[in-house]
């Protein structure tokens, strides 16, 4: 074997290895994402290491996360509201212990803390205490509520996102998913006509000199960092929308859609224009020779010929916009509510992950719920990519 | 690690050994690690730089990460001082006691939160109960608290912020904010939004107040209305004030005390005031 052959074989090996390594790494990342996300459903409804204790005479067996939140927010104030006895609810948190007892009563190393808690809970029929499991698990006079795992239904169909609420965080992702979809949908609605119009203008109408000026300007838009666009949005777009539509608040889904559309435009224009320019001259000439006007040629021949390229451009642009974080975080107001109109504040998945991952304790339920959001986002972009594949394969004849 | 290597190597040369051991021991006397709250972080950095100018041989490592991170690092012994923007939690204290450690708490400064509205808003004072109702979504129009007929737009910090937690604890009595609250990633964004939204209300640290927003006077149960100023916060009249703490292990007293004493000295407290925090006296 001479050197040349050896080099070729080696090169082929290297290429194969790098191909496989990349694929394996990608698969590992996805597995990791899924594994972390699935961990969420192994968590208890109540914060880890803590439990809810009630009086022995209280017949309530278990409470949903929603009910626990309402009780500790003092929205539910009587046990009969949730099917229990007619007795007002009193809540107790560990922090109150130091207000009720002196250091001496609690013991030097707090060895009597459990007894103190039990004393409180026993003393009041309607009391519910949020305390560490270790302290109260051996206490006689009180009863611990049954601990349930977080249910997939409560997460996927829940419409309240309170990841840091104590005693029981709520991880309803529906507001975040619908927020993301709303913003994306309106971004497409805005970007598509503009992008298409500019692409047609650049490839069919504009003469060469104008094109050479316009194209770099549009590509410049691609180079603006998203955080700068976000700040522009907050300082300019938000007040503008507020005044135009006479809204109480300018941070709305529409502001996010506008910024995202702006970010998707360069991709749509560049890819769309390239696709149209690749339409063979012979086809255009044939159309013109048949007596079609220039406009007729554009929309009967050029656009249908390059439709797969144009669609790929649109979907790629949107794919970029869906995962966009910073700009959206700054202009949509980030209110985790189900959006009823695009002129209301909403919260998207990427913004939530970016804003909350920093402080979420690693391995905790909050952390895992953010990974779950990552998985959902992965599915959305995966679906978009499938669309690109499908559209571009359909028209490749 | 480093220290270890330095101590071992010179065994071949007794003279060098002594010399290097001296070097290795000397910095360890004044090398201290400080970790914790991001609120306290800029203040500690500022004070640290000034401290190093006076004590060039000392060495400080200051890192953030949050109050909880700092305190758990203290339990594990990977930091000498834990910075915290809240009092040590009962649970954390129990962990420390179980580990047989005794920590000392020092208040190094105070931080006041101001409730801000748009300058065009005629409302200039609110009670704690009114604030709680507004931030929990029970009061939704300014006319319910004596203002114009305008929807209230409530801004808050993100859930990851210590400010968010403190406001929730102090003003909302540990209840949850309403779900439709607008959460902003940074204090600057809250100022910007409140400045341009007529019906807005939000909260920021005292240091961030500027003429583009209006700070409200606040009254807690049984108290009078007080404006958020450094003076009112120092004499305890303004209620939304939180102490900023340093925690350290009692056995490290000798190591950490010089720096803490510096921060508590008039020179250190001047840095506190310049940094937008409320000095102790």
How would you describe this structure to a colleague?
The complex is a heterodimer of chains A (397) and B (281). Chain A has 397 residues and is mostly helical. Chain A folds into three domains: 3-42; 50-148, 3-Layer(aba) Sandwich (D-Maltodextrin-Binding Protein, domain 2); 174-394, Orthogonal Bundle (MetI-like fold), CATH 1.10.3720.10. Chain A is built from 17 helices and six strands. A four-stranded mixed beta sheet of chain A has the order 2-3-1-4. In chain A, strands 5-6 form a two-stranded antiparallel sheet. In chain A, strand 5 (161-162) and strand 6 form a beta hairpin. In chain A, helix 1 packs across helix 17, helix 8 runs antiparallel to helix 14 (307-322) and helix 11 packs antiparallel against helix 14 (307-322). The longest helix of chain A is centred in the first third of the chain and has 37 residues, at 3-39. The radius of gyration of chain A is 30 Å and the shape is elongated. The relative contact order of chain A is 0.11. The model of chain A has no long low-confidence stretch (mean pLDDT 87). Chain B has 281 residues and is of the alpha/beta class. Chain B folds into two domains: 31-110 and 243-274, D-Maltodextrin-Binding Protein, domain 2 (3-Layer(aba) Sandwich); 111-234, Periplasmic binding protein-like II (D-Maltodextrin-Binding Protein, domain 2, 3-Layer(aba) Sandwich), CATH 3.40.190.10. Chain B is built from eleven helices and eleven strands. In chain B, strands 1, 2, 3, 4, 6, 7, 8, 9 and 11 form a nine-stranded mixed beta sheet that branches. Chain B is elongated, with a radius of gyration of 23 Å. The two termini of chain B are 42 Å apart. Classes of the chains: A mainly alpha (397), B alpha/beta (281). The A-B interface holds A 69, 72-74, 93-95, 97-98, 108-110, 113, 132, 160-166, 175, 234-235, 238-239, 242, 248-251, 329-330, 333-337, 345, 347, 355-356, 358-361 and B 66, 68, 89-91, 93-94, 97-98, 136, 150-151, 153, 158-161, 165, 174-176, 179-185, 189, 192-193, 196-197, 199-200.
């Amino acid at each position: 074997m001479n050197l040349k052959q050896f080099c070729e074989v080696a090169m082929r090996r290297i290429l194969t290895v790098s191909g496989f390594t990349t694929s394996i790494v990608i698969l590992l990342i996805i597995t990791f994402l899924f594994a972390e996300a699935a961990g969420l459903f192994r968590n208890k409804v109540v914060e880890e290491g803590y439990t809810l204790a009630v009086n022995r005479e209280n017949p309530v067996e278990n409470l949903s996360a929603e009910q626990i939140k309402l009780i500790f927010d003092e929205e539910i104030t009587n046990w009969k509201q949730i099917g229990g006895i007619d007795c007002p609810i009193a809540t107790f948190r560990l922090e109150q212990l130091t207000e009720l007892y002196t250091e001496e009563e609690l013991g030097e190393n707090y060895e009597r803390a459990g007894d103190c808690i039990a004393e409180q809970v026993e003393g009041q029929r309607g009391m519910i205490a949020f305390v560490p499991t270790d302290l109260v698990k051996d206490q006689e006079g009180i009863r611990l509520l049954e601990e349930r795992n977080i249910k997939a239904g409560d997460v996927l169909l829940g419409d309240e996102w309170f990841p840091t609420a104590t005693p029981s965080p709520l991880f309803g992702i529906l507001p975040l998913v619908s927020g993301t979809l709303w913003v994306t949908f309106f971004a497409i609605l805005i970007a598509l006509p503009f992008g298409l119009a500019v692409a047609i203008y650049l490839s069919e109408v504009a003469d060469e000199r104008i094109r050479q000026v316009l194209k770099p300007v549009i590509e410049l838009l691609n180079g603006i960092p998203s955080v700068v666009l976000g700040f522009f949005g907050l300082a300019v777009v938000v007040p503008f929308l507020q005044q135009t539509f006479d809204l109480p608040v300018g941070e709305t889904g529409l502001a996010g859609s506008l910024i995202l559309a702006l970010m998707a435009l360069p991709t749509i224009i560049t890819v769309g224009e390239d696709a149209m320019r690749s339409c063979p001259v012979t086809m255009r000439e044939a159309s013109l020779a048949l007596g079609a006007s220039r406009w007729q040629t554009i929309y009967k021949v050029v656009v249908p010929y390059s439709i797969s390229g144009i669609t790929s451009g649109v979907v790629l642009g949107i794919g970029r916009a869906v995962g966009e974080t910073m700009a959206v975080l700054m202009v949509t107001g980030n209110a985790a509510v189900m959006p009823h109109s695009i002129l209301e504040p909403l919260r998207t998945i990427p913004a939530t992950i970016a804003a909350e991952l920093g402080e979420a304790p690693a391995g905790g339920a909050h952390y895992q719920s953010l990974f779950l959001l990552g998985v959902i986002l992965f599915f959305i972009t995966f679906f978009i990519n499938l669309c690109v594949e499908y559209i571009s394969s359909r028209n490749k004849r | 690690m480093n220290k270890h290597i330095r101590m071992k190597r010179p065994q071949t040369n007794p003279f060098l050994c002594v010399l290097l051991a001296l070097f290795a021991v000397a910095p360890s006397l004044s090398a201290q690690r400080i970790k914790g709250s991001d609120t306290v972080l800029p203040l500690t950095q500022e004070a640290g730089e000034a401290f190093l100018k006076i004590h060039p041989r000392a060495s400080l490592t200051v890192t953030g990460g949050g109050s909880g991170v700092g305190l758990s690092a203290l339990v594990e012994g990977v930091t000498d001082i834990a910075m915290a923007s809240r009092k040590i939690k009962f649970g954390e204290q129990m962990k420390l006691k179980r580990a047989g450690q005794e920590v000392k708490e020092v208040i190094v400064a105070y931080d006041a939160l101001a409730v801000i509205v748009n300058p065009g808003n005629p409302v200039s004072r609110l009670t704690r109960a009114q604030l709680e109702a507004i931030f929990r979504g029970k009061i939704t129009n300014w006319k319910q608290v004596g203002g114009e007929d305008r929807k209230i737009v409530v801004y808050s910090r993100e859930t990851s912020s210590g400010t968010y937690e403190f406001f929730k604890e102090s003003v909302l009595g540990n209840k949850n904010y309403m779900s439709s609250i607008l959460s902003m990633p940074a204090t600057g964004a809250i100022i910007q939004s409140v400045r341009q939204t007529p019906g807005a209300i939000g909260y920021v640290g005292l240091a961030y107040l500027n003429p583009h927003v209006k700070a409200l006077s606040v009254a807690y149960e049984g108290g009078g209305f007080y404006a958020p100023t450094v003076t009112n916060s120092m004499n305890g009249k303004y209620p939304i004030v939180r102490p900023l703490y340093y925690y350290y292990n009692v056995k490290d007293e000798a190591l950490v005390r010089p720096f803490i004493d510096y921060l508590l000295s008039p020179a250190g407290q001047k840095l506190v005031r310049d940094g937008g925090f409320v000095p102790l006296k």
